[in-house]
Amino acid sequence: MQEHYLLDLDLRRIPALAPDVLILGSGIAAISAALVAAEDASVLLVTKGGQQESNTYYAQGGIAAALAPGDSPEAHLHDTLVAGAGLCDEAAVRKLVTEGPARVNELIRWGTPFDRKDDQLSMTLEGGHGQRRVLHANGDATGKVIESSLTSRIKDHPNVTVLEDHFAVDLLHHQGVCYGCVALDAKGGRFLKIESKATILATGGLGQIYRETTNPDVTTGDGIAMAFRAGATVQDMEFVQFHPTTLYIAGAKRFLISEAVRGEGAHLLNRKGERFMQKYDERGELAPRDVVSRAIFLEMINNGSTNVFLSLAHVDPKLVEERFPTIRKTLKQYGLDLAKDRIPVRPACHYTMGGVRTDLAARSDVERLLAAGEVASCGVHGANRLASNSLLDGLVFGHEAGQMARKLASGSQPTFPLKRVRPVREKETIPIDVDDVRASLKSLINRAAGIVREAEPMANAIQMLDFWQKYVYAEEFQSVKGLELQNMLACAQLVVRGAQTREESRGAHQRLDFPETDDVKWKRHVTLNRKEFE
Ligand code: FAD
Ligand code: SIN
């Protein structure tokens, strides 16, 4: 945990770029920020894979906004606060739900084709929402449609340049100020120094530190780890959301089966074919996600099974066909019919509630470093995110980050004062099987920081992580995989340390040894800063 930089680089020897605003990532938060900042600043978007490769692209269910007749931001606020289990920051949620409708209307004005019925926007229901307020596109391909719409908006924009296949390695930072980043050209193998007046982190969450996850391969927590190394405070790292229904077939990718499937009436059945959710919560299949995931977990333990089932057999097959084309197509590959068959599912890591602590203007506590979307934590999701609130979070706070970056861009460009960036350790090189450590790390975190947590396994996990870190951090990796592994180790430490600290159960964080919610001691955020580890 002592590293300030992963690599010892001589910055005089590498090519340099100097946009006004540097944005890391290319999901909904990044592009929303870019579109605002680019109104009067030059913007460089750096993304580690292809432009569309992001969690945003895979979003299924939809985007929540109080746009339906009879709905209101106040009702959306209420549902978000209830799901957040006492830990949401109300001002942040208020901003989300009141500005959200305007941002979504902007998407619509830009031509995003949300699904409609009789010319009215179609809305679905998801867990924790008191009414239908989730807009969707192309049935269950909401993320793909939004990402395409945003991407076409920045394509050919005179003030926006996109650098694909460039991996941000570290933020350039000195004495609490951020000056940009160092990036690795993943295909060419060269490093690049990028100096900017404002840097926006929009690098998404850390789902890949878990063996069972719905998140794509790019989601390795790089932004959280980078910001932490640069001295930013992170918060709520123990709150990792498990999505209740991920396809569970040996050999198949852990493909998400949208919560909207339950919103349209699907039942959850145990191995005996019995519905069980009512035993756990009167809201049944549409209780908030943390409640449903825990209920499935208990049902699997009590029945000695590896999964439960989703069933839509009682729902109109036409509706199933129309609403869930992507899910149907995927299931068909495994010989399953969504409209008829029982679909084997179990919970998997899905969303990072914690992250880089930001204020309502997307500022971290490192000067000139902003953060928005899943990488950030401004308190909007509390201990458990309400379904379909995260695309909205990316839109609203991405926009905010863009505004703040614009302000910073109107000033002069600060010059990074150091010629080299140096790690504070001795260098040595030993052979490391990166894939092997990555797989072991993912299994360890699944066990130690999963749906339920307990002191002893977490203490053992920290010992193991410390051990791996000693030799993995000693390496100066020139490959994306190696650098990602270092970031994953850092994030795993932060999740487990957060979970060890919080000696209570709340929302997505459940401790077997502290089963009660303790508002007196723990109705607060757990924050972590590098200084505490040194
Ligand atoms: P992302 O969209 O994850 O983008 C992060 C970007 O950063 C990527 O482009 C990545 O390549 C880039 N990046 C990461 N590290 C680096 C680095 N070191 N250097 C350069 N670039 C980097 N939410 C909803 O509200 N509704 C839904 O229906 C929904 N469905 C979902 C379904 C699935 C399967 C998944 C996985 C998530 C879903 N979510 C949903 C959650 C939601 O998609 C995400 O929270 C949201 O898209 C995050 O947006 P973002 O812009 O913060 O990050
Ligand atoms: C889903 O479609 O179930 C995912 C929705 C979300 O993560 O908000």
Task: Describe, in plain words, how this protein is organized in 3D.
This protein is of the alpha/beta class. The protein folds into two domains: 1-239 and 353-534, FAD/NAD(P)-binding domain (3-Layer(bba) Sandwich); 245-347, Flavocytochrome C3, Chain A, domain 1. The chain has 16 helices and 24 strands. It has a five-stranded parallel β-sheet, with helices on one face. Strand 11 (166-174) and strand 12 form a beta hairpin. Helix 1 runs parallel beside helix 5 and helix 3 (73-83) crosses helix 4. The longest helix is centred in the C-terminal third of the chain and has 22 residues, at 480-501. The chain is globular and about 65 Å long. The termini are close together. The structure holds flavin-adenine dinucleotide (FAD) and succinic acid (SIN). Flavin-adenine dinucleotide is lined by residues 24-30, 46-49, 53-56, 58-63, 142-143, 167-168, 202-204, 214-215, 218-219, 222-223, 256, 351, 373-375, 388-391, 394.
What are the salient characteristics of this protein?
alpha/beta, FAD/NAD(P)-binding domain, Flavocytochrome C3, Chain A, domain 1, 5-stranded parallel beta sheet, 4-stranded mixed beta sheet, 16 helices, binds succinic acid
